[in-house]
UniProtKB/TrEMBL annotation:
Chain ranges of the NodB homology domain: 23-195
Organism of origin: Deinococcus radiopugnans ATCC 19172
SUPFAM superfamilies documented for this protein: Glycoside hydrolase/deacetylase
Protein name: Peptidoglycan/xylan/chitin deacetylase (PgdA/CDA1 family)
Length: 220
């Protein structure tokens, strides 16, 4: 549990938000690809926005054409794991395979990994380093996995967004496309542009920011 608190809640050493003096925000989508992916891509194109998609091996196998579409798009495609399981539910061998899998394996440049649920075991950071992966978290949740409507979620999310924020969304929920439309409209009204994590660019979470994340996670 301590590893999960330090790794997920504090996030020290992982990539988190970007520069706070920028006009950029990164929208990220976990769990895809899904039948919802084409709609999300169409909305992003309408707003001339880019995003980062963290895909899973089972979803890619179920929707290979959509995975290829993402890989060929102007968006950034990264790894969400071989399985969608919390790190504490994986054996060390399974977690090694989890972290090693990537839809762009062999590609040049750093490869990113977002652990399912942001979860960490005592081995997560060590294995990520050995595998040459950089762990990425977020600082704002869109909460599109809840039962709230799109307007409510958009209002709550935009209230927390700051320049440089990394927003967690999901590729799959029915509410997400409308939520995305509202978020992009709200960001534009504030002069903020949606870009990929590489374009943000995401920065490592330091000691002070990590303590702020812990306090926010536990209501402090």
């Amino acid at each position: 549990m301590l590893a999960d608190v330090l790794g997920r809640a504090a996030g020290w050493g992982a990539l988190g938000s970007g520069p706070r003096d920028s006009d950029r925000v990164a929208l990220t989508f976990d769990d895809g690809p899904s039948p919802r992916t084409p709609e999300l891509l169409a909305i992003l194109a309408q707003h001339d926005a880019r995003a980062t998609f963290f895909v899973t091996a089972p979803a890619g196998k179920a929707h290979p054409d959509l995975l290829h579409t993402l890989l060929d798009s102007p968006h950034q495609t990264e790894a969400h794991g071989r399985w969608h399981r919390h790190a504490l539910l994986l054996t060390p061998g399974q977690e090694w395979r989890q972290i090693r899998w990537h839809p762009r394996a062999g590609a040049a440049g750093p490869l990113l990994y977002r652990p399912p649920y942001g979860g960490h075991s005592p081995l997560t950071r060590v294995l990520a380093r050995l595998a040459g992966r950089q762990i990425v978290l977020w600082d704002v949740e869109g909460r599109d996995w809840t039962a709230a409507d799109a307007a409510t979620l958009a209002r709550q999310t935009l209230a927390r967004v700051r320049p440089g924020s990394v927003v967690l969304l999901h590729d799959g929920p029915e509410v997400t496309p409308e939520l995305l439309r509202l978020l992009l409209g709200g960001l534009a009204a504030r002069g903020l542009q949606a870009v990929t994590l590489n374009e943000l660019p995401a920065q490592h979470i330091g000691l002070r920011q990590g303590w702020r994340r812990v306090r926010a996670s536990y209501g402090g």
